[in-house]
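ugh ok fine here u go
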Amino acid sequence: MEEAMRDGVAAQRERLMEGLRIYGGHYAELSRRFAAWLGLHSTDATAVLEIAAAEERGMRLSPARLSERISLSTGATTALLNRLEAAGHITRTREHSDRRIITLRSGAHIQERADEFFGPLAHRLDTVMSHYPQDLLEQFESFMADLNSTMDAHLTERRTTTTPHSPGPLGDQPR
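structure:
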C-alpha cells in the first residue's frame, strides 16, 4: 500500500514537473520576445524585468541581489547595469540611511513598455484564473512557495557540496 502511494506521488510529481517545464519554456520564449521587442540582449531584459518586478512588490533590489536573481557574477552584473543605466533603462539610487547601499530602479518608460507587452497576457491569465476558486489558488500559491523553497535549498546545498565533473579523454573511460 505504501509503495503504491509513493508510486502515485512520484507519477503526479512527474506530471506536475512536466507542466512546470513546459511553462518555463513558454516563460523563456516570452522573455526572449520581450527582449527583442525592446531591442535588448535577453540578459539585459531579464535584469530590467527583475528590477521592475521588485519595484511593483515594493521591494528594494540591490546589485548584489540582482546578481543572484539572474545568475551573473558581480563583475558581469556591474557591466550590465552600466549598459542599462547609460541607455536610460535603470537608475541606481542611494535611498537607505547607509549610503553605501544602492537600490536599482527602472526607468519610467520600462514599466510602460512592460505593461504594453505583457498586458494582454495578464488579461488572459486573469480570465483563466477567474474560473478557479480562491481557496484553490491560495493553495497553489502555497504549493509554489514550497516548491521554490525546496528548489532554493537544493541549489544552495549543491552549490556548496559539489563541483562540476568533466570526463577525461575518451581513452580514459572504463571499458
